[in-house]
């Protein structure tokens, strides 16, 4: 079989040239992939968005941006950068404030209230759902903690696991 292939290939120089050309030719990127790359380049070159770890998907001029951000101002800046890129017809935001940032802001809000600052509360956040845990609260404190946590940017829902 090997000798047959060896004798067959030299007799077909056109096929050899085509195979070599196909291997050396870079793949042609789709318009969506070209747009996605331009979006990423712009986001990486903007000082306000360069450090963010963002996902970009493009389809027919629609850019979907996903990832974690620190605040709504960062979201607004990211969306503005993407929207001004030639070829982007619409921008969809799937950006969320990171859970670490949300939990810290809830803790900061509790510390800012002199009546609540001394109360030990464990705060966790998963996809914006904040869970509050403490075994040293009364009913009034629990209501106030839940109310304050619910007003923090990025909080989607508050779970009261306090006693």
What is the succession of H and E elements? HHHEEHEHEEHE
- The poorly predicted ranges are none
**Overall radius of gyration:** 27 Å
**What is the strand arrangement across the widest sheet?**
1-2-3
Give the termini distance in whole angstroms: 79 Å
Name the overall outline.
Answer: elongated
Overall pLDDT metric: 89
- Helical residues, percent: 40-55%
Q: What is the CATH architecture descriptor of the largest domain?
A: 2-Layer Sandwich
The fraction of residues in strands falls at 15-25%
Number of helices: 6
CATH class of the largest domain: Alpha Beta
Largest pleated sheet: 3 strands, mixed
Total number of beta strands: 6
Please explain how this structure is put together.
By secondary structure, the chain is an alpha/beta fold. The protein folds into 2 domains: 31-95, Histidine-containing Protein, Chain: A; 99-160, Alpha-Beta Plaits. 44% of the residues lie in helices and 22% in strands. The strands form 2 sheets. The chain has a 3-stranded mixed beta sheet with strand order 1-2-3. The longest helix has 15 residues, at 31-45. The chain is elongated, with a radius of gyration of 27 Å. The N and C termini lie far apart (79 Å).
């Amino acid at each position: 079989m090997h000798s047959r292939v060896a004798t067959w290939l030299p007799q077909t120089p056109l096929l050899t040239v085509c195979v070599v050309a196909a291997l050396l030719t870079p793949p042609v990127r789709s318009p969506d992939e070209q747009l996605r790359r331009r979006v990423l380049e712009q986001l990486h070159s903007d000082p306000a968005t360069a450090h963010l770890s963002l996902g970009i998907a493009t389809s027919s001029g629609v850019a979907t941006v996903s990832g974690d951000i620190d605040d709504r101002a960062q979201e607004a800046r990211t969306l503005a950068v993407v929207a001004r890129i030639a070829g982007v017809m619409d921008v969809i935001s799937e950006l969320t404030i990171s859970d670490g940032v949300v939990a810290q802001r809830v803790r900061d809000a509790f510390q800012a209230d002199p009546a609540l600052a001394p109360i030990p509360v464990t705060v966790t956040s998963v996809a914006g759902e904040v869970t509050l845990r403490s075994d040293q609260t009364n009913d009034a404190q629990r209501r106030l903690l839940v109310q304050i946590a619910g007003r923090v940017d990025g909080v989607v829902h508050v779970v009261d696991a306090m006693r």
